């Protein structure tokens, strides 16, 4: 019996060490999720006596394929159901409530307007036409007209405090009670004037300066534009 030569022994030890390194590398890769579908075989080292030392690696396909699945199952969050909010029941639309104070004030204004006696209807047949002056005096002295002027919003007047009331058509908002009341007072004044005064031709606008006794504010009411007649106010929209 003869002992193997030292070079042959070194080659066998080197082959065994390489096989162990490859197996350890494969275990590390399988732990991190790499899959090996086909076994990998290392090279063989043949000695002088015909004995071979195969370098085989482990087939860890099952381990590598199950770990990613487990990680994916842990990483996938479950959907959170959203709560359904209950819709409020529709409320029945009832009739709008009327403020008793506003209703009483409106009725008082209507009564004051009905009792209003314009100055333009109190002149004799031979008196000259002074419809613009009569209108200013009535707007100045009539408490109903004063309340109407105080209810005019600031956005309806110009920078100089001018209120354009009529320029061929009525420039007022139906939702503005002050301007609506002024239109009614002006129309009553014009209708009370003499027919020849209503038919007289005017050129350019009339500026009526009316001051408020309570606030001391002067409002410039502008009526007319171009060529017009006082009677046009009674027929225009």
Describe the structure.
- The protein has 237 residues and is α+β, with helices and mostly antiparallel strands.
- Helix content is 41%, strand content 11%.
- It contains seven helices and seven strands, in the order H-E-E-H-H-H-H-E-H-H-E-E-E-E.
- The strands form three sheets. The chain has a three-stranded mixed beta sheet with strand order 3-6-5, covered by helices on one side. The chain has a two-stranded antiparallel ribbon with strand order 1-2. Strands 4-7 form a two-stranded antiparallel sheet.
- Strand 1 (45-46) and strand 2 form a beta hairpin.
- Helix 4 crosses helix 5.
- It is rod-shaped.
- The protein starts with 5 loop residues before the first helix and ends in an 8-residue tail after the last strand.
What's the helix count? 7
Percentage of residues assigned to helices: 40-55%
What sequence of helices (H) and strands (E) makes up the elements? HEEHHHHEHHEEEE
How many β-strands, per DSSP?
A: 7
Layout of helices and strands:
Layout: H1 6-31, E1 45-46, E2 52-53, H2 61-75, H3 100-114, H4 131-141, H5 143-150, E3 162-166, H6 177-192, H7 195-199, E4 201-203, E5 206-211, E6 218-223, E7 227-229
Helix pairs in contact: 4-5, 4-6, 5-6
């Amino acid at each position: 019996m003869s002992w193997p030569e030292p070079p042959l022994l070194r080659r066998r030890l080197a082959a065994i060490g390489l096989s162990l390194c490859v197996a350890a590398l494969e275990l590390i890769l399988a732990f991190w999720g790499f899959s090996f579908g086909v076994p990998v075989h290392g090279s063989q080292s043949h000695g002088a006596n015909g004995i071979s030392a195969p370098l085989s690696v482990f087939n860890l396909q099952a381990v590598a394929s199950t770990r990613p699945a487990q990680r994916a199952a842990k990483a996938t969050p479950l959907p959170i159901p959203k709560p359904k909010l209950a819709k409020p029941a529709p409320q029945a639309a009832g009739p709008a409530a009327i403020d008793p104070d506003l209703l009483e004030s409106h009725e008082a204004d209507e009564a004051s307007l009905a009792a209003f006696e314009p100055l333009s209807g109190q002149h004799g047949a031979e008196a000259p036409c002074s419809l613009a002056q009569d209108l200013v005096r009535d707007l100045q002295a009539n408490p109903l007209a004063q309340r109407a002027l105080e209810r005019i919003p600031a956005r309806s007047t110009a920078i100089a405090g001018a209120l354009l009331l009529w320029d061929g058509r009525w420039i007022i908002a139906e939702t503005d009670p002050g301007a609506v009341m002024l239109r009614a007072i002006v129309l009553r004044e014009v209708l009370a004037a003499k027919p020849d005064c209503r038919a007289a031709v005017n050129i350019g606008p009339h500026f009526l300066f009316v001051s408020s006794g309570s606030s001391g504010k002067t409002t410039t009411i502008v009526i007319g534009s171009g060529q017009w007649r006082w009677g046009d106010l009674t027929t225009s929209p």
